[in-house]
Design brief:
Layout: H1 21-31, E1 38-48, E2 54-64, E3 70-78, E4 84-94, E5 97-102, E6 109-114, E7 117-124, E8 128-136, E9 142-151, E10 154-165
Antiparallel strand pairs: 1-2, 1-10, 2-3, 3-4, 4-5, 5-6, 6-7, 7-8, 8-9, 9-10
Length: 167
C-alpha cells in the first residue's frame, strides 16, 4: 500500500492556509487560495502502521488562473522514495467550500472551512480515505497541517507538519 504521498500538503496541500486569523477573513474575500500563490514548502513526519516514520518535504509553485482557480504543482520528496510531482487544481464553489482534483486522488477533492481551519477530504487507490486539516498560525506565513489516513474506516496512518510561504 503506497501511502507516502500523504505528507502533504496535501499536502496538502493543498489549498487554503496560512494567513493570520485576523487577516484571513480579509484575504478570503479577495481569494482564499492566495496563500498558495507563489512558492510554498511543506515539511512533515509521516507515520504509517507497521512502518518506520519518515520525513516528507514538498516544494510547491501555485498560480491563480484567470477563472479564479488554484493550480498548485508540488515537487514531493519522501525520505527513501523517488521524487515525484503532485498537481492540485482547486476552485471555490460557494463561500467557504471548494472542490477540485489532485493527481494522486481517486475522485474529487473537497475542502470546507470549519471554524477558521480548512478540512480536505479525498479518496485514494486501494480503498484509502484521507482527511487533512490546515490551520493558519499567527504571523500569516505558516500553517499547521494534520493528516489522518484510513483504510476501510480504520486509521492506518497520520502526518503532522507545517506549510510556509517562501515568497
Amino acid at each position: 500500500m503506497k501511502l507516502s504521498y500523504f505528507a502533504v500538503v496535501p499536502a496538502a496541500l493543498v489549498a487554503v492556509a496560512a494567513v493570520s486569523p485576523s487577516l484571513w477573513a480579509t484575504e478570503q474575500k479577495n481569494h482564499a487560495m492566495r496563500f498558495f500563490e507563489g512558492r510554498t514548502e511543506s515539511l512533515a513526519t509521516v507515520k504509517i502502521v507497521m512502518k518506520k516514520p519518515f520525513k516528507s518535504r514538498s516544494i510547491g509553485r501555485g498560480e491563480i488562473k484567470p477563472d479564479g482557480s488554484l493550480l498548485l504543482v508540488q515537487r514531493v520528496e519522501d525520505e527513501g522514495k523517488p521524487i515525484h510531482e503532485r498537481r492540485w487544481h482547486i476552485r471555490e464553489i460557494e463561500p467557504g467550500k471548494f472542490t477540485g482534483t489532485m493527481s494522486e486522488a481517486k475522485g474529487p477533492v473537497t475542502v470546507e472551512e470549519v471554524g477558521g481551519k480548512y478540512r480536505f477530504r479525498f479518496k485514494m487507490k486501494g480503498n484509502v480515505s484521507v482527511e487533512q486539516w490546515i490551520a493558519p498560525l499567527p504571523g500569516g506565513k505558516t500553517a499547521s497541517t494534520k493528516v489522518t489516513i484510513r483504510k476501510m474506516g480504520i486509521t492506518v496512518g497520520q502526518s503532522e507538519g507545517t506549510i510556509r510561504r517562501l515568497d
